[in-house]
Amino acid sequence: MTLLAELEHSVGRHESAVVAFSGGVDSSLVAAVAARALGARALAVTAVSPAVAAGELDGARRVAAAVGIAHETIATDELARDGYRRNGTDRCYFCKSELYDSLAALAERRGYRVLLSGANADDAGDWRPGLRAAAEHGVRHPLLDAGAGKADVRALARQLGVPSADKPATPCLASRIPYGTAVDPETLARIDRAERAVRALGFGVLRVRHHGILGRLEIAAEDLDRAVEREPEIVAAIRAAGYAHAVIDREPFRSGRLNAVLRQRA
């Protein structure tokens, strides 16, 4: 059985489903499969909050239209949860609890039978306290259950013509804040402004890590030399976004760097 057939069988056995839909490649593939397997009985829902980078919602709308799934938005308020604001190593648990509480309430009101997420097999080896929140809400993970890792997901998304097949990961803006440093709306907005300012200079895969008055830019290996050549311009852009100081990290961007120690402990 092909991966696509396995996923369609897995999703199609449900009477109806709500897909937790960020517009990233993982949830986009699940949405595309749900549209094929369930048709009008599938709904993609995107959560909107201060922790979501600007432009992500527009991208999600485009993907939903392209794959042919009904799409709605909900507002979530993870900042109202003390555990999220404290930004401990379990921050994602509180974020996902807020998301799944909201999605479960919507599903119950509207008669949808199951919640689906885009968690994939690679997530099982990372520090993912959000998976605990998902388990508490009975969320199903078709990609994870099928053993599909990120490379498999991108390959199938390309095969199906999903617009976000090659989209870089864009996690919650709070992931730029070191554990133990409180999360607040102003800090999230500053990070978002700084990252948008650097992208406007022609750089794609990046993170601005928040260290109080310092914004530390991590940038993809293939763009690092070019960024260093333009360091004064980039530093000025990050400072204009609200940081007193800015620097380009000479180590290239690596997804999940803040979680590396946690994975070793786990």
Indicate the topology.
Blueprint: H1 3-12, E1 17-20, H2 25-38, E2 42-48, H3 56-67, E3 70-75, H4 82-86, H5 91-110, E4 114-116, H6 130-136, H7 142-145, H8 150-159, H9 185-199, E5 206-211, E6 214-219, H10 221-229, H11 231-240, E7 245-248, H12 260-265
Parallel strand pairs: 1-2, 1-4, 2-3, 6-7
Antiparallel strand pairs: 5-6
Brief overview:
This protein is α/β, with parallel strands linked by helices and about 270 residues long. It contains twelve helices and seven strands.
Please provide a written account of the structure.
This protein is α/β, with parallel strands linked by helices. The protein has 2 domains: 3-159, HUPs (Rossmann fold); 184-260, Histidine-containing Protein, Chain: A. The chain has helices at 3-12, 25-38, 56-67, 82-86, 91-110, 130-136, 142-145, 150-159, 185-199, 221-229, 231-240, 260-265, and strands at residues 17-20, 42-48, 70-75, 114-116, 206-211, 214-219, 245-248. The strands form 2 sheets. It has a 4-stranded parallel sheet, sandwiched between helices. A 3-stranded mixed sheet has the order 5-6-7. A hairpin with a 2-residue loop joins strand 5 (206-211) and strand 6. It is globular and about 55 Å long.
